[in-house]
Amino acid sequence: MIICIVGPTGVGKTLLSVMLAKYYNGVVVNADACQIYRELNIGSAKVKEEEKDGVEHLLFDIKDASEEYSVADYQKDLRDILNKYQDRNIILVGGTGLYIKAGLFDYRFSAIRKKDYSKYSNEELYKKCLKRDKNLQIDQNNRRRLENYLNRIDKNTQKPILLYDVKFIGLTTERDNLYEIINKRVDKMFKEGLVQEVDDLLKKYGEVNILKRAIGYKEVIEYLKGKISLEECQELIKKNTRHYAKRQYTWFNNQMPVKWFNTNFNNFEETYNNIINYLKSN
RNA sequence: GGAGCCGUAGCCAAGUGGUAAGGCCCCGGUCUGCAACACCGUCAUCGCCGGUUCAAAUCCGGCCGGCUCCU
What we know:
With about 280 residues, the protein is α/β, with parallel strands linked by helices. It folds into two domains: about 230 residues, Rossmann fold; about 50 residues, no CATH class. The chain contains eleven helices and six strands. A six-stranded parallel β-sheet has the order 3-2-4-1-5-6, sandwiched between helices. α2 crosses α3. The longest helix has 26 residues. It binds one RNA strand of 71 nucleotides through α2, α3, α5, α8 and α10.
């Protein structure tokens, strides 16, 4: 059985994953693009060693910050695990929708070529893409996606189907409440030493890609460079995290069949029981 | 009590007679190789009342609110 736990930051996914893993004697598998990396602990809100509670955790801490890693790599890594652990219950947790979808649905990452399109305007690129597919879903201004599309050799545009028997469990809470949780969580990260963590990573690896794009890291880098104040940095991280949470909802609501459960923060046992009951009866 | 300035969306803000720029936030969405990415969409009739005018956020009068100065 595969149980996939999704939802925005701070709703209790980590706690639930360990509880379900214990109940089903399963293993927890990471589905978060940042928690793949070693040493990105505080800012990525990675499970702490003591929270793992003896449960086996896979696909956490498998890369150094200097290493590149993408969806295609994740798909391969996840499928290797699903293959190797066929007789175990898998608890897949994380907020990276694309990774989950690419791993569990029949996404095909074909050969890719690296062509330089920098001399083309957005409009020209868009027209090139339209020639291949009249119903293209990519916006004209989205250069990155347009270039990716052109670099792909095979254009598989079929609707991807789910390859495994998966129960998608979503944890959620009211928007206002979520934003409050996010704010508190960010403040806590700073108390736990986020600035130090980023500073150490920066000294060790330099301004590598993952640090330049991960929320909580890119903003602290700006602060360390003296471009923004500490307060501005904190506010920026909160805002970016809110935006991120909203994008996550959009993805999970529209890309996968998620059964949502409201987190009861005063009584998490109740949330857990609701979910166990649902899993038993489905 | 007197004089002046100001009042445009949740916030910042342009527009001084021709039918409300822009940015941020919020909200909604797209999604097969950076996905904690990249990108898209929606969102006001201009403090209130009255007047002038074919036409007013823009001009005039009154009122309300805020700020500064004077007595």
